[in-house]
Design a protein that fits this description.
Length: 798
Amino acid sequence: MATQRPGFARADTDIPSSDVGHATSNDIEKEGASPEIASISSDHHVFDAAKEDHFGEAEVISDAKGVLTHVIHVDDDPSLSPWTFRAMFLGIGLAIFASVIQEIYYFKPQAIYVSLVFITVIGYALGELMALLPRTNAVFRFFNPFPFNSKEHAFILIMASAAATNAVSTEILAAQRLYYNMDPSAGASIFLVISSQLLGFGIAGLLRSILVQPTRMLWPINIPVVSLIETLHRDKTENRFRLKVFWIVFGVLFVWEIIPEWIFPLLQGLSIFCLARQHSLTFTNLFGGSQGNEGLGFLSISFDWQYIASLGSPMWLPIVTLTNTLIGYILCIVLFMGIYYGNIWRSQDFPFMSQLLYDTSSNSTVFAEYNLTAILTPENFIDQAGLKANGIPYLTGTYVAYLITTNMGCTATLVHMILWNWDDIKQGFFFLSPSNLKKLLQLSFWVFWKGGKSKEEHKREVLENPKMDPHYKMMVQAGYEEVPNWWYANVLLLSFAVGMGTIYAVKSSLPWWGYIVSNIFALVFILIFGAQMGLTGFQFNQQPIIQMIAGYLHPGKPLANMYFTVFGFNGIQQGQWLLRDLKVAQLVHLSPKSTFTAQMLGAVIGAVFNYIMMKSIVTNQFKILKSVEGSNVWSGQNVQQYNTLAIAWSIAGDLFSVGARYQWVTISYLVGFIVPVPFYLLHRYTKIRFFEYINLPIVLWYMGWLFVGVNASIGSYFVIGFIAQFYLRKYKPGLFVKYNYLVSAALDGGTQVMVFILSFAVFGGSGKSQAFPTWAGNNGGVANGKNIDYCMYNSANG
């Protein structure tokens, strides 16, 4: 056993601590590892790391515990404190920055997420800058009490991460302004956003013993972030060159991003096929994709990292997940082209891609949007007489295909998790056991404010539990005080009460019982989909199934549908992100109480600034956000999708029920329950590994991937992903582990900072936009009736 540094605690493990071990392309396949863990470990970059001081062979890790004890050091210095002015100041500042930029990204033509690795490196740079202040007197020591440490860094990261979301509640507030001529008061709106964010926080906290603390809940998405924090704080001399590489790449991308974003937007999606044939809508649909809802972007090339890494850097994605994604992507192209050119559901009478509702009078030359005001009463309920007079609205064929494949994937995930991971999720239902139901009848159970188990009881249970994460065991052994469950229970109850009040204050039309049901779904789905994300790193979109349930519970009430979704779907999404960050805190050994503080502050700050930015963007870009294509800079496609589903599911009996026009949207839920079973049985009885690694829920979700947004970047996404995860990982493992994550973070960082600046400086984020002069590389896009990649523009779009 290597000698420990003074002041460091170490878990009681039999893993040598002298070297950080790493795995290669060999899979985690021993000692009963689940297929999810196996598929992650065989292909995720963090398990393929070479030794830090060699570009040579790698050591193999055989199970999840090996990952957590080899890739990440299981040692700690409990004397390091995150409770400094510096950590609080930078945490609040970066929380504001992250929430603002994430809300800006929400109104972009492609979904983009703020990178945690980017926040990690920026937080480190700012922390080290403040650490340069002298400590000559009490005032300076207040601002700089000691060298910037890993606990401060983690505190900053978790606060900023909790804020780096676009709250679903801002979607409905935007939809009310865009489509319902409603503008709830700022006070009620902010309380709505805060309560919807903290409900998921409370639920996630109460489930942390199931979804965070066990070893098997690896949350692989976090390993690069945790590894980076370790790298930055363990030996600065060793990492000097790596940080130099980071800043060089960061600076290059910071300057470069001005070119594809503003000066030369043709580089966002360059299609050789469209340049060769500029007067074919078929080419536009298949090869175009540089603007929102233009086309599928097949074989296009993108030089804009903002769009290439819009759903997360491909340099991080496990190769099995990347392969399943590629299969889904190819099937998506086949499916969408087949539905449109087969004219299924009158597809050719509507745009190839759109999230709006269309009138029955629409045709291939003039796309007639459905007049929503004609079927809504003054109270924003569905007017049956108006619906009868105007006819049942239509959806585009590609959007219907997206709903079908997503719905199948959603229920397939439930079955997949039960078949492959029942042992991991069944603990979430422990409260239904007879012994626990009996406890519900005892008065002592409800006196939760007394604190529950004693510290010694909790410590003994954790240390004797072989399923617990070694890092969590080490923290308990070192005396870190756990957050009592009643803290999370109080947050849950308080936010529940505030949410109940705000749904009436904003005239949501959602009844009290519907509000309660939405929160019950959030609780159950956080357990199921939280376990999925913890095991596989893949997050599924549950919004369609939540809106379907809302539609059948509240027929004829589109606003009630959207508010049900705010608390149902947003609770799930927010809960998953907060669980992810709880795992980060556990792996970097940040005390539970400081983690709780950081997440609470971050969630509240994010909610407030989400609302402020939404208000500003909707006011200044109102017309563009309501258009079908938007522009290459701004798009209302997320709000359009949200509102379309709310209206559509409010008339589910006429649109989606069995016998209706789009019956397969509902039937697909039932089909999804069956889809994973054959592959599971084939694997169980044949032991053929192919069936183990094909993840049908992922394939199904990506079969609807291209229904919206800028798709010209997908080809570049796969090329970069396979270069990093196959070539570099397999043939240059040392180079891969030293620079792959760092370069990816630098690409994210330089891009996101410049996009943030451009959004306000030239794209009209807070006022009038400033277009770059028109030239061959910038033809003006939709504003001039063109697609920026020179594919034929469909004039029927308006």
